[in-house]
């Protein structure tokens, strides 16, 4: 345990040192920081590289050095120039698909090991890397079908050792979150440990490309009737844990707005497709692409939106989909009372609070942004207000909604880059209204009624066994408590030892972290 605490403190100290050394912390004004952080920011300026102030890629360089977990954070921030600033966002765009490749020899060796045959037997033509990210890199290759026809394919190959590095980072984040929850009430409200677990599970899918292949297939099946969206086909015979082969896409990245216009496509129409396609995936299917940054989105010659890199996907149950639809519909129609009631019905706001008071808080968020275009909305101010409201009403973080919330922000950022005048509410309205009509209207009521009858039949069939087990449990409980419920001396002694250990390790963790921080200051 003490070794892990020291290792975690060392990793945090290294992260702080790298950010300071690359000049990232110099971007923060000491006057705008909390008082306790101001001395650290002044020290950070002293240890920054002399050329850090003139380097365009200081933030991306720091995150690249820190590893894949930090790169993922940078990819998210790259879509929010209104939050981190235009210059920082341009810096972070490097992280999306222009990381250094790990080498042709390593890629070919991975393919040979995965399929137990030479590369030329799998791919007669295997080119150099065309894109490289934090988790994997992509090569263009060519296959030959049994009939002799040739096809261009995209071959994604995992970076060597990335799984171990990611697991190490997630372990550190998880232990820090656990320590914070044990010692700070605000951390418990935010459910930091659940947040880390949720993010860890989602990104860990990227470490097994067979799961990503399955995600491609499910997304393609769900959207097969959507003419505006295309999902590449998977070549299952040439895919494994470390290698994923898919249809090659000739398209224009959404980050290249000038090329989109030059090809004759309307950026405003593409922005609409991006927003509505995501909402259909989330609300209609309950299975959505959760990494929709510009590096993963293309426009093909037919004007369709093409999504790649299905390593991170999100799922929503019917309860969460209804919550999303009613919240969006409430904002669209400015029905703040109904929006507040949905939060209470979903259990997201404790019932000891007032619905009317919460509706007033929702109105304070919604009214300033309603009927305004995207370029008139400060997402930074909106997020700050949302955080204040969640704290005011004791709202705990909902891990099942984390990927949804993160992706909604990213999608809005992508759409905004294509159409700064985008009206988010008007764009979302058709998709939301269709879902409301099909699931909460008369048709939806009939569907739920039929489902309810089926559940009642299943319950009736299992009722005799359930009653038998209940009676057995009641008999055992009666025997155990007939003379009063007592704890043995060993149990009491064990409880005392457990509490003593918890206090010891909590105090020890504080000392280790404090020592590491002091060491970083003095270094």
TrEMBL record:
Keywords associated with the record: Cell inner membrane, Cell membrane, Membrane, Transmembrane, Transmembrane helix, Ubiquinone biosynthesis
Per its UniProt record, what Pfam families does this chain match?
Answer: ABC1 (PF03109)
Per UniProt, residues of the ABC1 atypical kinase-like domain are 95-343
Instruction: Give the pathway.
Output: Cofactor biosynthesis; ubiquinone biosynthesis [regulation]
User: Which spans are transmembrane here?
Assistant: 504-522
Which terms does the UniProt entry file under GO BP? ubiquinone biosynthetic process
**Would you say which domain of life the source belongs to?**
Bacteria
Q: Belongs to which family?
A: Belongs to the protein kinase superfamily. ADCK protein kinase family.
Protein name from the UniProt record: 2-polyprenylphenol 6-hydroxylase
Origin species: Xanthobacter dioxanivorans
């Amino acid at each position: 345990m003490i070794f892990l605490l020291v290792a975690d403190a060392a990793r945090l100290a290294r992260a702080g040192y790298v950010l300071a050394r690359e000049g990232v912390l110099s971007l923060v004004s000491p006057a705008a920081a909390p008082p306790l952080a101001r001395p650290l920011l002044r020290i950070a300026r002293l240890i920054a590289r002399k050329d850090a102030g003139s380097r365009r890629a200081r933030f991306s360089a720091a995150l690249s050095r820190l590893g894949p977990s930090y790169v993922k954070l940078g990819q998210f921030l790259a879509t929010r120039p209104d939050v981190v600033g235009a210059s920082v966002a341009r810096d972070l765009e490097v992280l999306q698909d222009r990381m250094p490749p790990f080498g042709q020899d390593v890629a070919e060796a991975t393919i040979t090991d995965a399929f137990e045959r030479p590369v030329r037997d799998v791919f007669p033509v295997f080119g150099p890397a065309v894109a490289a990210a934090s988790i994997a890199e992509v090569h263009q290759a060519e296959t030959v079908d049994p009939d002799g026809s040739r096809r261009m394919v995209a071959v994604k190959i995992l970076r060597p050792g990335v799984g171990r590095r990611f697991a190490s980072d997630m372990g550190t984040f998880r232990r820090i979150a656990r320590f914070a929850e044990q010692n700070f009430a605000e951390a418990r409200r935010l459910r930091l440990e659940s947040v880390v677990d949720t993010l860890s599970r989602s990104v860990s899918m990227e470490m097994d490309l067979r799961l990503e292949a399955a995600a491609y297939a499910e997304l393609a099946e769900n959207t097969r009737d959507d003419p505006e969206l295309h999902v590449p086909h998977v070549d299952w015979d040439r895919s494994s844990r470390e290698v994923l082969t898919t249809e090659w896409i000739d398209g224009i990245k959404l980050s290249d707005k000038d090329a989109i216009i030059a090809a004759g496509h309307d950026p405003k129409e593409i922005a609409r497709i991006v927003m509505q396609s995501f909402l259909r995936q989330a609300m209609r299917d309950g299975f959505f692409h959760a990494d929709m940054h510009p590096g993963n989105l293309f426009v093909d010659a037919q004007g369709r939106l093409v999504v790649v890199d299905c390593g991170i996907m999100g799922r929503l149950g019917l309860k969460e989909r209804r919550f999303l639809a009613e919240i969006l519909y409430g904002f669209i129609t400015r029905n703040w009372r109904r929006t507040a009631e949905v939060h209470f019905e979903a259990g997201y706001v404790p019932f000891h609070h007032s619905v009317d008071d919460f509706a007033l808080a929702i109105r304070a968020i919604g009214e300033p942004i309603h009927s305004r275009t995207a370029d008139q909305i400060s997402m930074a101010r909106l997020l700050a207000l949302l955080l204040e409201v969640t704290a005011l009403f004791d709202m705990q973080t909902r891990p099942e909604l984390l990927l949804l919330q993160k992706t909604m922000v990213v999608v809005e950022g992508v759409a905004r880059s294509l159409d700064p005048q985008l009206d988010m509410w008007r764009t979302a309205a058709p998709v939301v209204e269709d879902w409301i009509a099909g699931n909460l209207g008369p048709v939806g009521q009939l569907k739920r009624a039929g489902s309810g009858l089926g559940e009642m039949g299943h319950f009736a069939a299992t009722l005799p066994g359930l009653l038998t087990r209940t009676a057995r449990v009641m008999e055992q409980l009666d025997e155990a408590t007939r003379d009063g419920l007592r704890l043995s001396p060993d149990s009491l002694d064990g409880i005392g030892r457990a509490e003593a250990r918890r206090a010891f390790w909590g105090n020890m963790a504080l000392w280790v972290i404090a020592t590491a921080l002091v060491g970083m200051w003095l270094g």
